[in-house]
Amino acid sequence: MTSQLPTAPPPETEIGGRPRRRRWLAAILAAALAFGGSVTAAAPAFADGAPTVTVTEAPREGGTVTVAGSGFKADGTGIYVGIGSAASAGFYTASITEAGTVWVATGLASTATRAPMNADGSFSLELAVPAAGDTELAVFTSRAHGGGMMGDLTQDTKTPVAYAAAPEEPGTEEPGTEEPGTEERGTEEPGTEEPGTEEPVAAAPSIVVSKVDGLDPHGETVTITGSGFVPNGAATTGTRPPLAGKFTGTYIAFGAFADVWAPSTGAVGATRPAAEVRWGVHEADLATIGGASKGGIVIAEDGTFETTLTVSYDYAGALADGNYGIYTYPGGGAKNAEFETFTPITFKPGVFVSKTADLDPFGDTVTVKGVGFTQTAATTGARPPLAGKFSGAYVAFGAFADAWAPSTGAAAATRPTGDVKWGVHAADLATIGGANAGGIVIDADGTFETELHVSAAYANLKADGTYGIYTYPGGGAKYAPFETATTVSFAPKVTVSKTSELDPAGETVTVRGAGFLPAGSATTGTRPPLAGKFTGAYVVFGSFADGWQPSTGGASALRKVDAQKWAVQDAELATIGGANAGGIAIGTGGTFETTLTVREFEGALANGSYGVYTYPGGGAKYAPFETATPLEFAEPVPVADPKLTVSPSTDVDSTV
Predict the structure, then answer these.
(1) Where are the alpha helices (DSSP H) in 492-549?
(2) Rounded distance between C-alpha atoms, residue 317 and residue 471, angstroms
(3) Tell me, what DSSP letter sits at residue 28?
(4) How many beta carbons lie within 10 A of that of residue 429, not counting itself?
(5) How buried is 188 (Cβ within 10 angstroms: 0-12 exposed, 13-18 middle, 19+ buried)?
(6) Alpha helices, DSSP H, located in 522-573
(7) pTM (two decimals)
């Protein structure tokens, strides 16, 4: 019997104001017991090189401690880190709340419940601690996803949390022990000490960002509030114009910077490709740097500021392996490590499609990039082959119904796909059949990139569906954040089976069209029999002059038609007289197929061009339906004139 274990701890949920015990932990305990054993926590024995953890001193009033670890396994499973009762033997028995737990593994971005494990097995993170009380606390680590409970104790550590010493209680000196009158009166002149002369200690520069998790990858505005950005002598003095020799404030930037980016470390400018940046300076210098129109903002004399930045994932210049966040660093060439701050941000699931409009309806290729598709408890598959595991996301092209999302209970029939890929973790790619079966890799940071073939001519797509690139959870999981839709549209297009060396006496060609879809009032007829309805398109052979298009006011005299069909929706075919009147049906994806007889004909416009043309029917005017495919006829084969040649002969009998 096998039992699948949950993955990362989900966000904390509170009921009645008290932290709820983790359901994921209960599931792990149940899975372990299902193997016929009991769950106990034994104190691990560590060999040389075992993991070690250090914890900074905790404030007595409560706050945060910094936890630093080294010697851990650097992989995608990682460890759980949390604070619990020091009397407990290990992580899984320490009654650790969800809010007190951080999942640390390679490839993870920093959030409230996640932290990255470095390649050398080290990490650093902050944990919240309560005010000092009667219960002694410790920081615990253990193999994630229940590994530490199932026998892998190699990642188990327990490090006590030490609180700052309590201040000495006033009044502890026994009253009356000092003999009265022994202090000489009047030796200290009253009022000689000037009040307020002691210089206050300036707070370290810091910023607060209004939102750091679940940001819209296509763009969202955040507010940044800063404090402590005050002049600090030469360290904050500019080295280049326009503020050389003066306090140059700080840059406030959004970008995906390199791991080593800080100017104080000598990192070059290329490590800091910013998407948007502000320059905070004192008010007296704002005009000098170009004012607000150049990104200038005011840093108050007390070192505070407030500004906004727009953050987005797919900005030009972002480093492929960069760290997205809000950064500050000294302006004007100054180098001051205290002004260098980094606040990580994360994005909610979203996709970017390389081309969304004017696609070739007969077939085109688009590149799809995804971000934010990270593992959660809700993204666990419900059916084979990834039941009980992270089942990733489907990335599909299709024409879906308005209500298509699995999380709302929509049936699979609402999601007919043309081309589809299945994004999973690299370790599971072979399980789903590999690349040949449409498998692609979702990296540990939730990103992916793939290509999809799009076409309006897929026969199985919904005639009334919306064309788009869609994502949704794979393997039967239901998780609304993975459900995204990016609408795409096709340009009407026509192909003709033969366009040159045509028989001028007459030849039949096949005409195929796609993308001839309703476009609101622009494709609505203005005259009977389809006034007020979608009137499709005329498909004609003729001789047309320049400027023939109805949308530009071209008169009918510029369009000399020799053969014509009228493509309409199937429901309107009888209304226009059916096939006997030249009617043809427009199918799924605005597709049609018909034949036309083409020839050189009398009455062709002297300044016209032979071709197959399409334009809206029933008086509508819509430029995208106006297409022209030129035709060329073969030159006639010349016929030789009859000619008689007579040769003289000497043996002719003239008497005959």
Answers:
(1) none
(2) 26
(3) H
(4) 19
(5) exposed
(6) none
(7) 0.64
